[in-house]
Design a protein that fits this description.
This protein has 406 residues and is mainly α. It contains 16 helices and 2 strands. The protein folds into 4 domains: 132 residues; 74 residues, no CATH class; 81 residues; 84 residues, no CATH class. Helices cover 64% and strands 1% of the residues. Strands 1-2 form a two-stranded parallel ribbon. The N terminus is likely disordered.
């Protein structure tokens, strides 16, 4: 029989000979299922157990921090993995014992739930504080996997409500479908490791923190940015993303404008830096490398189509007499950057940026080149050199001083 007196005899972590002695003795001795008929817990004992569980959780966290504080990296790895391994074993034992307890003994079941909750919190503490030392590629225990799947199930339900509320985002729907499959599988054709579970928990947590109340288009953009940041290199998602980009690009009627829109997306996605060492499928290419190759090929194909449609007249000298052209001291790249800035600032207005380039560039020449290609000039504005930006700024400052002097 468990009573308050005998329970208080269970060792707490006053020494570090065996820091997990409290949990071990509570699970294997005090709440031994083979002695289940002899176990009787009164309210005082129940409250005492709950109180000590909370204290033990806190004590162990501080103990682990103090133990690892003065250790080198190799020693920290050994200690952290030892703690994690033993906690997972105790968690499995606690869950196994709980399943042997009759539903009628609700107090004991509740204590086991408190124990597994405390052990899970300790595992999550180790995961958060010592993620670099836990051995991310080690397989997780069936018990720890089951607990994590329960957490993911709650997140899945919350995210499903976003779809029900009208946030019909195909990317989110695709992610939830894959997550649902993972959660509801009884077995896997691959080894589930710690890295995979951390990835899934972080992904759903970031999804839940998205600003869902903002403009739908903004939410859609944030969803794609998050998946690129998290290197979500699912083949299905890659097909979805590239098809959505092409759909937007093909809304433009002019081929030059399609190229302009495609280059804009290329630049936008290149500026999203993925989180280091994070990937959905470590055995497949990174999402960023696949997107980069896809954009490069799409740009080449579109440029070739434009060239064929125009009969390659862009490469030929313009009909405008070179003597009638305006000589500009800026380079071709600098002129392109300046024209793009004029367009984006709405100083000049046309139906598209390509129309602005098409109207201005044929009338200009540089000291290096008489005939300039407006398509080539426009395409280079998406890969800007810092030196070119500085030169334009210096010329603009001179212009400002001149205007001030009038």
């Amino acid at each position: 029989m468990i009573n308050t007196t005998s329970f208080r005899g269970i060792a707490m972590t006053d020494t570090i000979e065996y820091p997990l002695e409290f949990f071990d003795r509570l699970i294997s001795e005090s709440l031994d299922p083979d002695r289940i008929d002899k176990i009787d817990i009164d309210n005082e004992t129940f409250d005492t157990i709950n109180k000590h569980l909370k204290q033990e959780d806190s004590k162990l966290q501080f103990l682990i921090k103090s133990q690892t504080f003065s250790l080198n990296e190799k020693e920290t790895v050994i200690l952290v993995r030892r703690y994690r391994s033993n906690l997972i074993k105790l968690l499995a034992q606690a869950n196994g014992n709980k399943q042997q307890v009759s539903d009628e003994l609700s107090e004991i079941i509740h204590i086991y739930e408190q124990i597994t909750d405390s052990l899970d919190k300790l595992l999550l503490f180790i995961e958060n504080w010592y993620a670099d030392f836990v051995g991310l590629d080690e397989p997780v225990s069936p018990c720890y996997l089951a607990i994590t799947k329960k957490e993911l199930k709650k997140s899945e339900e919350r995210l499903k409500k976003k779809l029900e509320e009208g946030h019909n985002k195909p990317a989110l729907r695709l992610v939830l479908k894959r997550l649902h499959t993972f959660i509801n599988r009884d077995s896997y054709p691959f080894e589930v490791n710690f890295r995979a579970l951390i990835y899934k928990k972080e992904l759903v947590a970031k999804f839940e923190n998205l600003p869902w109340e903002t403009d739908p288009a903004e939410v859609c953009r944030r969803v794609h940015e998050l998946l690129i940041y998290m290197n979500y290199n699912s083949k299905a998602y890659i097909r979805l993303l590239t098809s959505e980009i092409l759909k937007e690009v093909n809304k433009e009627t002019e081929l030059a404008d399609r190229l302009d829109r495609l280059l804009f997306y290329q630049k936008s996605y290149q500026h999203i830096h993925p989180k280091p060492d994070v990937v959905l499928n470590p055995k497949y290419h990174s999402l960023q490398s696949i997107l980069s190759s896809w954009f490069t090929q799409e740009v080449k194909d579109l440029e070739r189509i434009i060239k064929l449609e125009n009969g390659d007249h862009e490469s030929k000298p313009t009909d405008l007499n070179p003597k009638n052209k305006i000589l500009c001291k800026l380079s071709s790249d600098q002129i392109g950057l300046f024209i793009r800035a004029l367009d984006e600032a709405r100083v000049v207005i046309a139906k598209s940026m390509s129309a602005v380039f098409r109207a201005i560039v044929p009338h200009l020449s540089t000291q290096q080149k008489e005939n300039l290609s407006f398509k080539a000039m426009q395409s280079k504005t998406y890969a800007v050199e810092e030196r070119d930006k500085q030169i334009i700024i210096e010329w603009l400052e001179k212009i400002i001083e001149i205007i001030k002097s009038y």
